[in-house]
Amino acid sequence: MSDLLHAAIIMDGNGRWARERGLPRIAGHHEGASAVRRVIEAAPDFGIGTLTLYAFSEDNWTRPEREVSALMKLLGRYLVQETKRCMETGVRLQAIGRRDRLPAPLVSLLEESERKTAAGTRLHLRLALDYSSRSAILDAARRLSASATEESFSKLLGPDVDLLIRTSGEQRLSDFLLWECAYAELVFTPRMWPSFTREDLAACVEEFYRRERRFGGIRPVEDVLRSA
Ligand code: IPE
Ligand code: IPE
Ligand code: MG
Q1: Is 35 in contact with 192 (CB distance < 8 Å)?
Q2: What's the distance, CA 175 to chain centroid?
């Protein structure tokens, strides 16, 4: 098994970042795109092999039409601008979540990006769009039914998360990677997503390495003491 980390980030706080500056919410989303670039560039340097970013949830469709369509446009523009850079830097991009409700031009751009970056091996970047973990679990359950095992479920859903980061001070999962986070280390930071830097990511990874993961077992040192 590779010891590269699977880090997942709930990129929250774009709206509040903008409000604090007297700007419209969409300005926060624009600045959020810069934070995405920073984090993608930094992730491989910190031993992250897979990075899953929560960009748009199923429940985000309930936002005003204006914000939703601005977000979709921004995502499209991001893909147009960044695909080449992903190819050059070995980033393999993959979208997770539903595609049938996304604007058709955005789906085409996603597919094009996925095709063009398929050979990337430096970072596996998973972009969660129109994503709901409950829907993903339900979908997998329907596909597997009686033959379901923990392994077959994980294969359909995705790799276990090692480190889950949420920005903006909120401490909840908001329907993100519920199955995959079974033993994830959770790190909550007050930083709003548009202000999230390479140094913030480094601090989160450091925090991860300070934690002791036990997976339901006992601390190795206790094991040694017990058998002594
Ligand atoms: C996260 O920032 C981006 C999306 C959910 C698309 P928000 O837009 O949720 O920002 P806040 O939580 O309102 O500050
Ligand atoms: C979760 O953030 C979704 C994304 C970051 C894409 P939200 O801002 O939508 O979540 P809640 O409403 O605070 O739980
Ligand atoms: Mg939010």
Answers
A1: no
A2: 12
**Residue ranges of E strands in the chain:** 5-10, 48-54, 91-96, 123-128, 163-166, 185-188
- The catalytic residue among 59, 60, 130, 160 is 60
Pocket around ligand 1 at a 6 A CB cut-off = 11-16, 56, 60, 71, 168
Interval 163-205: pLDDT, tens = 999 999 999 999 999 999 999 999 999 999 999 999 999 999 9
Nearest-10 crossing angle of helices 150-157, 133-144: 130
Which pTM value belongs to this model? 0.96
Spell out the domains of the chain, with CATH numbers in brackets: 5-227 (3.40.1180.10)
Q: Quick check: helix, strand or coil at residue 180?
A: coil
57 touches ligand 2 (CB under 6 Å): yes
